[in-house]
Amino acid sequence: MAESTDLTSDSPPGEISSSRALEGECVAFTGVLASMVHRDAAALVETHGGRAVHSVSRAVSLLVVGEEGWPLEEDGAASQKLIQATQLVADGAEIRILQESEWLHLIGLNEQRDEIQRSYTPAMLSRLLDVPVGLIRRWARIGLIRPVRRVCRLPYFEYREVASAQRLARLLDDGVKPELLETSLTQLSAALSGSDRSLAQLNLLVQDEKVVLRDSFGVMNPRTGQRLLDFEIRPDLQVMAATEDPPPQPQPHPLSIVPEEETDSDDPPVSISFLEARLKLDDREMGDWSADDWFHEGCRLSEENAFESAVNAYRNCLSLLASDHGLMRNAVHLAADPPATDPADVHFHLADALYRSGETGAAIERYHCAIEFAPDFIEAWTQLGCLFAEQQKWGAAEDALRTAIAIHDANPDALLHLAQLLDQTDRAAEARHCWEEYLRHDSRGPWADHARERLTAEMETTKA
User: At CA 317, angle to CA 315 and CA 322, rounded to 5?
Assistant: First the structure.
C-alpha cells in the first residue's frame, strides 16, 4: 500500500511532507543542473515515488529547469523541452514548471538548495566556473553582474547570475547571433523568473564585445536602432569614430529611436569595436583627466593585460588624489570627507598590477597601503597572505590570513589559503579543522572536492 501524503498546515504552499513527495508525478528535466547530473536526479525522482522521463509530453506533470545558467541549446535556441512544456500548458495541460532549487525544496533536499542559492566571492566563482578572477571583476565593473551583498569590501554574487553571463558570453563568442539569443530569452521569460535580467546582460555583452554605430547624432545600437549616450554604454570608456576630426555632435536624447529619414548627415555611420576603442574623455588632453578617469583607465589597461601601463595610470590617480584631497590625513578625516575614488581600492588594484608585472615586493607594499586606508579590507589581507606564502614567509602569511578570518570568519577564500598553508607547514591537525570550516562555506568546486578527499584520507589513516 502506497504511503499517504501528509499535508500539514505548517507546510509552505506546495511543500509535501512525505518521503514520497513525488508520488504519481511524471518528471522531466531540462538545462544543466547545478546540484547534480541528470542521472542522479532521475534516481531521486524514483526514490520519492515519481517517474523520470527524458521527453516532454502531456503525460509529464513536472518539468524541472536546471540553474547552471539558462536552458539554452548550443545554437542559442531556447530549450526545446521548456518550449514544448509552455505550449502544452497554453493548450490546457497541467504541467508545473519549477526551477531546480524549488524542486530540491519539494523533495526535502534543502542543503543542496542552499548550496545553489548561496552567494559566492569572485575567487570562489573563478574556481567554480573556471574563469579568471579579473573577468569576474570586469563583469561587475561594467554592470553585467551585481553583488548581492558586500562584507568589508568583499563582494558576493548570485551564482545563477554569473553563470548566466558566462553562458551568454560563450554563445556570443561561438558566433551565435544576439537576435536569436534575445528571442530565446524572451521565450524563457514567460516561464522563468530572472530572464529579464539576462536580457539586460545580453544587451551589455553585445555593446561591450561587439559593435555599435556612430554617426553625427551619436551612438546607436544596430540591433535595436536605439540611440545611446556614451556613458550609458560604459561609464569609463568613450567610443570613438575612426576619423581624425569627428564633427561636433549634438546631445542625443537617451534611448530615443531616430528614424533613418531624420538623419541629415552625409557622413556614413562607422562601425566601432569596443575592443579596439580607446579612451578619449570629451576630447580632453590627458593632463586634464581626473583621478577617477585615471583609475578607470588603469582598470581598462589591466583588463587588457597591459599591466605596466596600468601601474602608471594608477600612480597618476594616486598623485591626483594626494594633491586634491591631501591623503596624508588620517582615516577619520577621510571618512568625513571621502574622495570620489577610494584610495584603498586604487592601492589594491595597483598591487595586483604590480604583482602581475613581476614586482611582488612592490605589490606587498601596496597591499599594506590599501590596508592602511581600510583596515578591514578582507581581500587585501587575503592577497597579502598569499604573496607572503609564495615567498615562504610562513609566519607573515599566517598572520595576514588569520586577520582576514578574524574580520569575517565565514570568508572561504582566506580559509582555503590558510588550510593550504597549514598543510604545507606539516600542521595536519590544524589544517583538518581549517578544511572543515572551509567546507561549511564552500561545498562546491574542485577545492571543495579536494577538501573532502583530504579529510577522508586522514580519517582512513587514523582508523588504520
Answer: 95
Kindly tell me if the per-residue pLDDT of 66 is higher than 50: yes
Residues 323, 389, single domain; the answer is yes
Residues 139 and 175 in one domain: yes
Is the CB of residue 86 less than 8 Å from the CB of residue 191?
yes
Q: pLDDT of 136-187, one tens digit each?
A: 888 888 788 889 889 988 999 988 888 888 888 888 888 888 888 888 888 8
pTM over 0.70: no
Does residue 457 share a domain with residue 310?
yes
User: What CATH number did the domain enclosing 82 receive?
Assistant: 3.40.50.10190
* CA angle, 197 then 69 then 47, to 5°: 125
Predicted local confidence at residue 402, as pLDDT: 97
Name which residue leads in pLDDT, 32 or 230.
Answer: 32
Angle, helices 80-90 vs 178-189, to 10°: value is: 40
Q: Using CA atoms in the order 448, 450, 453, 459, what is the torsion angle rounded to 10 degrees?
A: -90
One domain for residues 31 and 160: no
How many other C-beta atoms can be found within 10 angstroms of the C-beta atom of residue 440? 10
Q: How confident is the model at residue 19 (pLDDT cuts 50, 70, 90)?
A: low
* SS3 category, 243: coil
Domain-located, residue 30: yes
- Segment 83-93 shows an average pLDDT of 90
Which residue, among 301, 302, 343, 306, has the nearest Cα to 321 in the 3D structure?
Answer: 343
**Average pLDDT in the chain:** 77
Give the residue with greater pLDDT, 71 vs 254: 71
Cα–Cα distance for residue pair 340/322, rounded to 1 Å: 12
Farthest-apart Cα atoms in the chain, separation: 85
Structural domain boundaries enclosing 59 = 26-116
380 and 448 assigned to the same domain = yes
What are the residues facing 26 on neighbouring strands? 51
User: Among all chains, which residue has been given the C-alpha cell 507546510?
Assistant: 11
Please indicate, yes or no, whether residues 319 and 434 belong to a single structural domain of this protein: yes
> How many structural domains is the chain composed of?
3
